[in-house]
Specification:
single chain; alpha/beta; Fumarate Reductase Iron-sulfur Protein, Chain B, domain 2; Rossmann fold; four-stranded parallel beta sheet; 25 helices; 9 strands; globular
């Protein structure tokens, strides 16, 4: 065990780990503790392990890596903690220490693959778009239907087969929003907003981005697409790659500052949470922290601006029952809870039914459901039982990861013909009569 990593972990987390009074309020809020039933899968258990590692009593890689890696990072524990332990910061520092420890030794093959993809794919929007274009060709060519008919994917990888089924029909790449575009407000201009397109949404779910822009212009927002924006850095930060996350954050801050916009809007709970914590990312860099603070003050989720500048001009009625699954990071980090519900409850003709476990993670967790598929599915299957109780015909989400996870849940239920999953803006656009 490297003494410098232990000392760094002690310096960055020890005081915070001592804030935990081991009361156990976090246990029922933690999806991995509920599904796994062991203390090392709970927030207080992980905090205690970080403390022991910071004291040099356990090995960072051997004893800390697995429990930390199995954390979804949903941060529901922070909401219920009576003494406000900053679990998110402890988690990020632990991941950074683990990443450093693994780089000093022979890292596992999966770690190397993950690191390669993070360093050489996600920071490059053009490469992400290329992957998205290939996915469109894959669907359009009919090759996807051939694989389903022959059950080829199911035979070589049941996990990959399940994920292939969650991908919705993709729009032609020419309909993707272009960097540098400006969309004028319809009617009176109430505000100028800069739109953060995201990685996965821009590459694959770009229809959601187009509809987001439509809705913003309908409520009087001029929308600009900053040309030099990049990945928000969340995937890097969550994997302990802090310097890489900072590099991306600096690029985004500069790009959005140049836009001259009043607000910086996004439609992905996870991305928005990262953007709202840029000031925390630069705690040790005063100049950048000041710029990050100004940036953070301008960040808004799409639902916030639609409520602020609405009402939306609804043109149609919605038939059926709607339920809503919170994005953990939208709810627990951004504290945006009421606005999506307010919008859904205002939809004419719709019946809104609150999901009893809406505040609990669906098991997506960024790329958690790819790295820990079986653990993720245990959480998802419980969630789908709660959704079944609502008798909903439409599940609404506000994050691409949650959206794909819920589509997979519907598929696993065998309810693909009776339940649809939509992003919030997709549903709102439909009742506003927005055509693609």
């Amino acid at each position: 065990m490297n003494d410098s990593q232990v000392e760094r972990l002690r310096k960055n987390t020890y005081q915070e780990t001592n804030q935990c009074i081991q009361c156990g309020y976090c246990l029922p809020a933690c999806p991995t503790y509920v599904s796994m039933g062991k203390e090392s899968a709970s927030p207080r258990g992980r905090i205690n392990l970080v403390k022991l590692a910071a004291e040099g009593k356990i090995d960072i890689r051997e004893h800390l890596a697995e429990p930390i890696d199995l954390c979804l990072g949903c941060r529901a524990c922070e909401v219920v903690c009576p003494v406000n332990v900053p679990y998110g910061h402890i988690l990020e520092q632990a991941k950074e220490a683990i990443t450093a420890a693994e780089s000093q030794e022979d890292a596992p093959a999966m770690t190397k693959i993950k690191s390669f993809l993070l360093r050489h794919l996600f920071p490059y929007p053009s490469r992400m778009r290329f992957i998205g274009n290939l996915a469109w060709v894959y669907q359009k060519s009919g090759f996807s239907r051939f694989l389903k008919r022959t059950r080829f994917l199911e035979r070589i990888s049941p996990v990959l087969d399940q994920w292939e089924k969650t991908l919705p029909p993709l729009s032609p790449p020419k309909k993707r929003v272009q960097w540098g575009e400006v969309f004028p407000a319809k009617g009176e201009t109430k505000a100028k907003v800069a739109f953060f397109t995201g990685c996965i949404t821009d590459a694959l779910l770009y229809r959601t981005n187009r509809l987001t822009i439509h809705l913003l212009t309908l409520v009087g927002c001029e929308v600009v697409i900053p040309a030099q924006q990049n990945c928000c850095g969340a995937l890097f930060s969550h994997q302990g790659m802090t310097e890489e996350a900072k590099k991306l954050a600096r690029a985004n801050i500069e790009a959005f500052e140049k836009s001259g916009a009043d607000y910086y809007v996004n439609n992905a709970g996870g991305c928005g949470a990262m953007l709202r914590e840029y000031d925390q990312l630069f705690k040790d860099e005063p100049e950048w922290q000041e710029r990050a603070k100004r940036f953070v003050q301008a960040v808004r989720d799409i639902s916030e601006l639609l409520v602020q500048f609405g009402p939306l001009p609804f043109q149609k009625e919605w038939k059926g029952i709607i339920t809503y699954q919170d994005s953990c990071h939208l709810r627990n980090v951004q504290k945006v809870i009421n606005e999506p519900r307010q919008l859904l409850q205002s939809v004419p003709g719709a019946t809104y039914v609150e999901l009893k476990s809406a505040d609990q993670c669906c098991g997506s967790g960024g790329i958690y459901n790819l790295l820990h598929f079986q653990e993720s599915m245990k959480i998802l299957d419980v969630k789908m039982k709660d959704i079944e109780e609502t008798q909903a015909t439409t599940i609404v989400t506000t994050n691409p990861g949650c959206y794909l996870q819920m589509r997979l849940g519907v598929e696993r239920m065998g309810a693909g013909d009776s339940i649809q999953t939509l992003h919030l803006v997709e549903l709102l656009a439909k009742v506003c009569g927005v055509e693609e």
